[in-house]
Amino acid sequence: MDPAPIHVAALYQFTRFPDREAVRGPLLALALAQGIKGTLLVAHEGLNGTIAGPKEGLDAVIAHIRALPGCADIAVKWSTAAAMPFGKMLVKLKREIVTMGVPDVDPTALVGTYVPPAEWNALISQPDVVLIDTRNDYEVVLGRFEGAVDPQTPTFRDFPAWFRANRDALGPNPRVAMYCTGGIRCEKSTAFLKAEGVEEVFHLAGGILKYLEDIPEEESLWRGGCFVFDERVSLGHGLRTLPVPEGFKAQSPPSAEF
């Protein structure tokens, strides 16, 4: 009889945590008590991470997170793994829950238009829409949406400089659609573009993971695998684990930033 799969929960929420340590301590204690492993990042701007373990334990941790200020409606992306994809449980205090390095970018105040997976194909098929992949260069190697611009940025911190250097090439009034793994980088990148004066900015709600979960492969415009920051490395349609191409190597250490 095959062993029960390990449940994996990816989540993030932009909200205000004035006291990060007050959030970190109880959260780490509960996760350890429930046998949960993974990484959660806690910053003044919110929480982000991926954790794995028994379903009951994850439910307890997520219930705790939903009781935190501004986290009641946090969305969770569920998947499974044949073996535990993390070695230990970490709750880290960070300056940002996803590092862009641009002061005053606040997705709780300004953000692009969320587009659900069911409407994404129609949007990005429009000829006047510029589709941009906001992920790191080594992630794009594994897979991308057809026709997407690859900024070839080593880290998300490099994205603002790339955009400013290429802003004029997008045209005077571009309609920009962006996507990332789970949605969090697009929260910041759309907020950044809006602050830079781009009026029509869209992003894939729930990220690639939600698209691969919801959209049948025969209807999909996604090609290849989606890089994830754990030992599974690459996921495909239905969030199934894919073989890693020979010679592939992530150029950044695993983290919760997705």
Features:
258 residues, alpha/beta, Alpha-Beta Plaits, Oxidized Rhodanese, domain 1, 5-stranded mixed sheet, 26% helix, disordered C terminus, tRNA uridine(34) hydroxylase, transferase activity, transferase, TrhO
Notes on the structure:
With 258 residues, this protein is an alpha/beta fold. It folds into two domains: 6-93, Alpha-Beta Plaits (2-Layer Sandwich), CATH 3.30.70.100; 113-241, Rhodanese-like domain (Oxidized Rhodanese, domain 1, 3-Layer(aba) Sandwich). The chain is built from seven helices and 13 strands. It has helices at 20-33, 55-66, 117-124, 137-142, 159-166, 184-195, 207-214, and strands at residues 6-14, 37-43, 46-53, 76-81, 89-93, 113-115, 129-133, 143-145, 175-179, 200-204, 222-224, 226-227, 234-235. Strands 4-1-3-2-5 form a five-stranded mixed sheet, covered by helices on one side. It has a four-stranded parallel sheet with strand order 6-10-9-7. Strands 8-11 form a two-stranded antiparallel ribbon. α1 (20-33) runs antiparallel to α2. The longest helix has 14 residues, at 20-33.
Per-chain topology:
Blueprint: E1 6-14, H1 20-33, E2 37-43, E3 46-53, H2 55-66, E4 76-81, E5 89-93, E6 113-115, H3 117-124, E7 129-133, H4 137-142, E8 143-145, H5 159-166, E9 175-179, H6 184-195, E10 200-204, H7 207-214, E11 222-224, E12 226-227, E13 234-235
Parallel strand pairs: 2-5, 6-10, 7-9, 9-10
Antiparallel strand pairs: 1-3, 1-4, 2-3, 8-11, 12-13
Function: Catalyzes oxygen-dependent 5-hydroxyuridine (ho5U) modification at position 34 in tRNAs.
Pfam family, one: UPF0176_N
Family: Belongs to the TrhO family.
